């Protein structure tokens, strides 16, 4: 204990003395001691931090990160200034990544279900027991039904080893929501017209664009750093922004012109735009003559789509359309018709996507400054892993798009290892959904196949991340699918409604705690980036590669995972590319410089590369005609609400990623619950006031309760809510029961040619509770 003579001036020592020794009252303290209590803390002497590099996993843009660690704990997330996806910037979601690793609700150790399926009753088990059980169930399923009875659904960067495991097992039934629930019709449209896929990290020359025609692309709220920064720079450089959305978003507030277009009718507006561009000869004549086919047929097809016709459907004044077309033509090719990020909404998403790509093509944007650039590729060969009996490795296209249509990928992914069973979701299967991408499949159709056990029994499910309930639209089908299974194993970092139904839960290390496969991308410069662990895995968790390898070994598939670790695998990949792990770990990224000649071939007069059947951009795609789907180019009537109904809409917000981040205690602070936006006139008519609780009911009877935000920022015939709320898993203690689920209200109708969901077709009634 300190004495008066050798008094330790630190507050800690003083309080220690009072607690452990003489019990002094505050009033009785000597003045010197009181002064010490009121003094500020001396500067803490914290240890220096170390820096490691990674790439973000909080959304799918994958910004480069620089993570600070102390005592083997990540303490701060910053952006990697070298990374072309974000140039050092990290958004609110990205910053909240620390609260994935440190989340109190994390899945902390392997567990097995002990109560009824879905009841959420668990028992902790060892990794050995968990992995042995999964391997045993895999063998049992194969023996009883065949390998096709396994479905694998992934969502995230860590899904790749699970796809590998499933293909090694011999099933063709692997899927990810990126196609059927999100970007499918958009990517497909790009590919049909140009052979190039503008999804994923879009290769738009945003900084130099002079005119953005934004079809609901809410780039400031559904945001990705590099894209949003590029767009802001473009606007700062003088680009005009014309924005269409039934809701006045933050992006609308930054636009030069805003039009509250009727929901689901973008296609009508775009067709009228094409009508004007071709009739007034506003297109890039040299480009169209030399690098496209199908112009005359397109011209004939759009004659009926006049601006006056479009006005009657869209509420966009007829006189506006030719003016926008002329303004764009004056700025072309530095213009861009911007598709929404997710194009799974209307009864003709394919036609909407096609119109966007056709307009961009008529304006000759490909490989031109301010239009679309060609990315530089950084070639990092895949390693020579044993080939699957039935398919090649499901791979993410390295540049310019989320899914790959090249070569034999679609065919390779539609049959099981014996060639007897085609994909259960029908993706790529003639007579079912031949246009759907067979690499990522139709997640919506896979759930249906499991629920109906058609076209054949699917009895085992493996999931890697994702949440079938809140990223889709049909709770009944998903619940039925999960209840039909003999066995369900879920690997994830966080609990959610879907993995609540698992028989075994495999807790994964978060993206801050592990190596992962390399990130190879294409921006104006080419790059390969590394994800290094910034901390030791917390709890009893393991990384995805290790989990899959350890299952594979137990299921007699060990030859498909020959490396001891993912670190060893990426070391070998880098070596094949002439680099090393030590080299990439210095800055987190290795780049090849941008090359304006390659990025903007058109500026040099060099023709663009369009890998279509004709080798040119096809204004009426030959593949559509061949498959007799060319009526997709025509307008299809959309659902309209009755007098007492509304169009139901939902969207993302800047600080949440889908339904993944509502339980994150950092992001939850921003918006604890979502609200239903409704126009004041519509609210008054129903006696609804701001903050009232209302019931929202879909025609099919599904309903949710939610508080109301009365606002002029939405059309009178439309209501809106932020996506991802209304969680019903009690393990998610932050998000549980907060707000309402848009997924439980959205439509499950399907795009008739693609098979993707058309979520925007729900019509709802709203009444005060
Ligand atoms: S935009 Fe934000 S959440 Fe998405 S990858 Fe970048 S930092 Fe992460």
TrEMBL record:
Signal peptide positions (record): none
Record InterPro entries: Asp_de-COase-like_dom_sf, MoPterin_dinucl-bd_dom, Mopterin_OxRdtase, Mopterin_OxRdtase_4Fe-4S_dom, Prok_Mopterin_Oxidored, TAT_signal
Cofactors (names): Mo-bis(molybdopterin guanine dinucleotide)
Residue ranges annotated for the 4Fe-4S Mo/W bis-MGD-type domain, each copy included: 49-105
Highest taxon above the source species: Bacteria
SMART domains referenced in this protein's UniProt entry, alphabetically: Molybdop_Fe4S4
Family: Belongs to the prokaryotic molybdopterin-containing oxidoreductase family.
Annotated SUPFAM superfamilies: ADC-like (SSF50692), Formate dehydrogenase/DMSO reductase, domains 1-3 (SSF53706)
Descriptive protein name: Molybdopterin-dependent oxidoreductase
Organism: Candidatus Marithioploca araucensis
Keyword annotations of the record: 4Fe-4S, Iron, Iron-sulfur, Metal-binding, Molybdenum, Oxidoreductase, Signal
UniProt cross-references to Pfam families, sorted A to Z: Molybdop_Fe4S4, Molybdopterin, Molydop_binding
